[in-house]
Amino acid sequence: MTGPDDFLHPRVGGMERLARLALPAALPWEVAVFAGAALAQLASSTLLFVPDAGELLWLPGGVLLAALIRLPRPRWAGCTAGAWLGVCIALSARGELDSTTAVLMLIVLALVPMGVRAFLFLSSDRALLRTFNSLAWFLGVFAFDLPLVAAVLWREFGISHAVAHHVAGWLQFALAHALGYMAFTPAWFVFSKQRSPTHKLRVGDWRTLQILGCVAVIAAMWLAFGSSQHLAPLLLLAPIPMLIYVAVTGRGTGTYLFFALLAGVGLFLTVRGEGPFAQDDQFLSILSLKSWVFAVSVATWSLAMLIEQRESMRERAHDALDEARELARRLMQTQEQERARLARDLHDDISQRLALLSIQASAARRAAGARAQAELNVIQEGLVALSADVRQLSHNLHPSMLREMGLAAALGSLCGAQRHRNGPSINLRVEADADHLAEPVALCLYRAAQEALGNSVRHARAQNIEVTLETDRDQALLEVTDDGIGFEPTNGTGKAKGLGLFSLEERAKQLRGEFRLSSRPQKGTRVCVRIPLQH
């Protein structure tokens, strides 16, 4: 059978697994977990310990959890043993270790890999903020199940503890474990995204300053009005609007930073007997604070997950748009290359063969009788006209004049050909020297004029057409205006009709330009292409 770990990690043979465990390179993770668990236990027993209320957070479980989620299963046993040794050494250094405590810590830490396995099996996803399913299973396993089991074991073992005398001591103990899992492991995932510029927060960054400002405002409110019992519900809800704002602007990193600072402010005020959590009993004050932190943490990570999903979808859409534009650029480049090849084939092969046929028809006409001469004359005239059409088709496919003589001359030839073949009045006005434009810009403007003139003649039945080309230091502007029958420029979706117009728009976007089309029935059409010039 294929298990969750087989899905997340390539299946390897038994010898390879033994080799991975035996390699010296495997040691740093176990050593790191050992040191991290020892430091986490010291922090939980000193910095995060409140007399008569116990530990605020129990961090060793969170350290082990963060490591196990990142590592393949063969490394779990070593990391769990390292975490247990680290916790025991830290407790022994403080004189708090006995055999019963050591056994309890071993059981509690052994529950962590079991919880990780259950989490991976149920969610099949190691990223906590990717889906609601993974977040819900994480909270269910590590915010509820494991802390409750640990609290039951704590009561059954009868461990001496600062809150053992209190009837709600088990709840204090369970909340400390739940907050430890919820504080450390999500932080590991959030701050690991700091490699991305969109997630990175720096000291002095405006988002960081906003977060600090929001925390300062909440701290001032709690300090000023915390003793007012009738304002307590409002004070507890006051951070929520700021939390939403920080989640939108700072994403997961900013959300975690804001909430961690806010919890620190709440702890500082509560220990001093101030703020909305302060009560006559220190135990109840800390229990109120931890309950509020736990509840808001669940909501905070749900909100952060929503923000991460939205931003992830936006980034994927942006990447997809970039890929589509790159594909369009390559397709247009390939199209121009194919047009150039076809133009060369028409000019070098088909046109030459038509010219040869015309010469042969002329020779045959001189040697034929009167009746045959008339027929051959019609054939020769058709060959001459066909040769002219082929030359014009070759020019339309790939205007060699654009490269040899410049954009102004190529536009003049284009307008002259349309005027000669179809009869409309075409007025070309080039108000500045356009021959200095880069080849991609010149080709884009030429294709725009070609498409717009073709539409004016074929579809709009225009009699008067104005073609204007303006260039200055910053931009090149092409406008084609006609007096034709016009049309509604959208098809109900806000998109321009026709593949040719869509192609013009994409060509302009490839050069960071813009394409505008304005038309009304019986009011003519105006096409405008604006391309910025780089210097």
Give an overview of the whole structure.
- There is one protein chain.
- The chain contains 17 helices and seven strands.
- The strands form two sheets. A five-stranded mixed sheet has the order 3-4-5-7-6. It has a two-stranded antiparallel ribbon with strand order 1-2.
- Among the domains are: 22-172; 401-532, Histidine kinase-like ATPase, C-terminal domain (Heat Shock Protein 90), CATH 3.30.565.10.
- It is α+β, with helices and mostly antiparallel strands and 535 residues long.
- The longest helix has 86 residues, at 282-367.
- Strand 3 (425-430), helix 16 (439-458) and strand 4 (464-471) form a beta-alpha-beta unit.
Roughly how many Å is the radius of gyration? 38 Å
Mean pLDDT: 79
Q: Termini separation (Å)?
A: 63 Å
What would you call the structural class? alpha+beta
Number of strands: 7
Instruction: Kindly state the percentage of residues in helix.
Output: 55-70%
Strand content: 5-15%
Sheet having the most strands = 5 strands, mixed
Multimerization state:
single chain
Largest sheet: spatial strand order: 3-4-5-7-6
Order of helices and strands: HHHEEHHHHHHHHHHHHEHEEHEE
Low-confidence stretches: 1-26, 194-198, 492-496
Shape assignment = elongated
Number of helices in the DSSP assignment? 17
